[in-house]
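Cross-posting from the chemistry board since nobody answered there.

I work mostly on the small-molecule side, so proteins are not my area. We synthesized ribose-5-phosphate and want a rough idea of how it might sit in this target. Sequence and SMILES are below. Is it possible to get a predicted 3D structure of the two together?
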Amino acid sequence: LIPSLGGITSTRAKPTFATMATQDELKKQVGYKAIDDYVTSGMKVGLGTGSTAAFAVERLGELMAAGTLTDIIAVPTSVRTKEQAESLGIPLTTLDEFSSLDVAIDGADEVDPQLNLVKGGGGALLREKMVEIVADKFIVIVDESKLCDALGPGFPIPVEITPFCHEHTKRVVEALPALAGKCKAVLRLGSSTNNQVDGDEPAVTDNGNYILDLNFDEPLTDAPAAAAQLKATCGVVDHGLFIGMTTAVIIAGSDGISVKEP
Ligand SMILES: O=C[C@H](O)[C@H](O)[C@H](O)COP(=O)(O)O
């Protein structure tokens, strides 16, 4: 069964009805392979968020129910992943109990040739980064539509900000040296789980924060600098640039599955 996608959509060109099943099948292939190849009994596992990560959670639940994997404990990266894991009987914990994990598995919105990522289209970037940064291995699972030459124009970069004086923070972010004149910051409205305008009120994350989506026309030339400047901005909680965190990317495409490492 294809798990609920939690209403996640993106500004990426939507697949046609004819190709949708195929894209979901690709997501399922990488989700299942990540669990099969990187999770063994006794591990502490970070569970990502989104339509691809949901297949990994599904597979983990399946193998635990079958007794193939035992003594697993997991940290979910969103309320909806927590609910899915609970529904499958996967034992859960938090980073308050364990500050390091064996592996984390998650999707991404964009992957560049250095395996730097844009994440947070589904609004879970803060919890994802907190969990994935403490994992010994961070395994990224994508279909080939997520690969890009450079981060920026293909998918807006999400930035989680405090609601307090958010219009001020938006101006400060747009004026950062690495971003000035290159992007337009748009306050996410409606549901935090997608970057479509599907409501009138600011979208609120699982952490009670707002999200700015940074829209670029041109590729981001220095993603590490942008990441550092965003992180150093008062009012920014975190951002969706995941730089130098990836252990491996499992990619499903029309030619089959491949694995890339930095
Ligand atoms: O906040 C959401 C996460 O970063 C997702 O991992 C990312 O948006 C990819 O989601 P999907 O697998 O649904 O494309």
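Reply from a structural biologist on the board:
Welcome over. Reading the output above for you: The helical segments are 17-38, 53-65, 79-87, 125-132, 166-174, 223-231. Residues 1-11 have pLDDT under 50 and may be disordered. Happy to explain the token format if needed.
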